[in-house]
């Protein structure tokens, strides 16, 4: 691959730069011309993508060419690395979906954009509210044997698991996963403060879409939202579509966690990027409404999101009252750190993988112009 050069405003410093790269970033030098108003940033990272562009990653029979098409659609949002996410389902469906995704990763063009896999459930709360849209009849107690089956199906690429720490014996599973370099995240839970603390002591380091997967009403204090926000060992992810969490909650959570412990995710589901209408998420009927709201069909319970990452970054700036630099950090180096994605920890610095996004930002709108993954041009507007 020949060395390439991209010019723009360094999103971290605000200075004009020319970035020279092959498969990794090789040289970054200041420039004063030829950059226009275009920004340069590391490629975005999304640790929670259930599906996209009409493709359901939870389907054991999702065609590989369709998975490849969805990856190209994700590139158009600035995402260069992501964790396809398999949610609570039958043991057969979950292992089937992971096996299918792992096979696609090795076969399709740009399959390596699927950096690893996120298993969200089935070891979560069965209660209404904390369970979210996960099917109740598939929620089950934690099992090291089942975790092993997930890893076997995924060729060992399960890198993130969301669990509820209310289950007896969950700390043993957490310790097992952490010893195998799997990130353990707390989510879809109604756990007590003591149970959350025990999970953190066992090695849990993340909170999944904090503020969601929760009871509609809960006691003022203590409760599991405050307990997670107050714990400095947990990095929290947030869905900033303006639907899942309100502005004030997001601002309070940002102050409680500190920007260094905050990550943006989309929690996108299969209808994301599609026209409004009725869809199926596995066995779950849902509706994508105008305005990108996804609900269980016939009701108002949210069933994932239709958010695109470049919109999530712009929304985070508006909702959180933060800078472009901080919002991009939450979608890049913070995500790489908590998700343990090698080669993406430094940001726009020499030695990191040549995952880049060039974009315009004005009037609270981020427009992706060009994207490279591992030095390969994968999207041009």
Give your account of this protein's structure:
- With 381 residues, the chain is of the alpha/beta class.
- The protein has one domain: Metal-dependent hydrolases (TIM Barrel).
- It is built from ten helices and 20 strands.
- The strands form four sheets. An eight-stranded parallel sheet has the order 5-8-9-10-11-12-13-14, sandwiched between helices. A seven-stranded mixed sheet has the order 3-2-1-4-18-19-20, with helices on one face.
- A hairpin with a 2-residue loop joins β18 and β19.
- α2 packs parallel to α3.
Give me the strand/helix succession: EEEEEEEHEHEHEHEHEHEHEEEEHHHEEE
Q: What Rg, in angstroms, do the CA atoms define? A: 20 Å
CATH topology: TIM Barrel
Mean pLDDT: 96
CATH fourth-tier homologous superfamily:
Metal-dependent hydrolases
Give me the side-by-side strand order of the main sheet: 5-8-9-10-11-12-13-14
List keywords for this structure.
alpha/beta; 10 helices; 7-stranded mixed β-sheet; TIM Barrel; 381 residues; 27% helix; 8-stranded parallel β-sheet; globular
Give a nutshell description of this structure:
The protein has 381 residues and is of the alpha/beta class.
Task: Lay out the secondary structure.
Layout: E1 4-10, E2 16-21, E3 25-30, E4 39-42, E5 44-49, E6 51-52, E7 55-56, H1 64-75, E8 79-87, H2 91-107, E9 117-120, H3 144-153, E10 158-163, H4 170-179, E11 183-186, H5 193-202, E12 206-207, H6 224-230, E13 235-239, H7 247-257, E14 262-265, E15 277-281, E16 284-289, E17 293-296, H8 309-320, H9 324-330, H10 333-339, E18 356-362, E19 365-373, E20 376-380
Parallel strand pairs: 1-4, 5-8, 8-9, 9-10, 10-11, 11-12, 12-13, 13-14
Antiparallel strand pairs: 1-2, 2-3, 4-18, 6-7, 15-16, 16-17, 18-19, 19-20
